[in-house]
Inverse folding.
């Protein structure tokens, strides 16, 4: 997927200026694809040159006219073709998980602060997603009480339904990460009293041959 496809989707949902598009990336499209303002403006210029989008000047009271972009027939055709292409599952590269594996050869408790920091970040992002759900779809609970549900699919048009489905995916992912990090913290706390303070320099005491590494 390229940034162009995310921009086409956003402009089909609602035409807008480069500034308005950048704000959408900060609020909703950013749930699944991020881009800087500079990247967005650069790609808009290229898409306009390729004929995927058109622009018109929209008068604004007391301010300069704004340039509003919309998707052309060529742009819609491009998006339709891309929608039919297969999507490969993304490869996961998780540095914290590698550090946790490596902690067996150091001091697992030393990672506690870093795991707690990651948990705070995911909790903040979950709170942000839930606030967006309450704002845009109603209901949605809080990070502390996820019980309140948003409005059902029958209350939304197809475009809104699919937007909400993407947001629910982000919410589910953040909840999963928080649950996993809670498990990691519990594991680190459980392992802390087992440290061998002897000549091994704080590494785990070796009681026998190490088991085969987990897959």
């Amino acid at each position: 997927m390229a940034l162009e496809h995310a921009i086409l989707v956003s402009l089909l949902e609602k035409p807008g200026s480069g500034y308005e598009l950048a704000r959408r990336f900060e609020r909703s499209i950013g749930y699944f694809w991020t881009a800087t303002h500079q990247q967005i403006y650069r790609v808009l210029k290229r898409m306009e040159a390729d004929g995927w989008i058109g622009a018109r000047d929209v008068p604004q009271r007391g301010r300069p006219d704004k340039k509003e972009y919309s998707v052309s027939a060529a742009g819609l055709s491009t998006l339709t073709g891309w929608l039919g292409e297969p999507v490969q599952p993304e490869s996961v590269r998780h540095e914290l998980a590698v550090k946790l594996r490596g902690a067996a050869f150091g001091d697992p408790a030393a990672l506690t602060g870093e795991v707690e920091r990651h948990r705070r970040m995911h909790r903040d992002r979950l709170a942000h997603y839930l606030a967006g759900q309450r704002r845009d779809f109603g209901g949605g609970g809080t990070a502390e009480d996820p019980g309140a549900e948003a409005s059902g699919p029958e209350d939304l048009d197809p475009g809104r339904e699919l937007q909400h489905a993407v947001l629910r995916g982000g919410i589910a992912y953040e909840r999963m990460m928080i649950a996993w990090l809670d498990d990691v913290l519990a594991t680190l706390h459980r392992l802390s009293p087992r440290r061998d303070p002897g000549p091994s320099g704080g590494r785990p005491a070796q009681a026998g041959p190490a088991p085969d590494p987990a897959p």
Summary: Strands lie at 53-60, 63-71. The radius of gyration is 24 Å. Helices lie at 3-13, 18-27, 37-49, 73-83, 95-102, 112-137, 158-191.
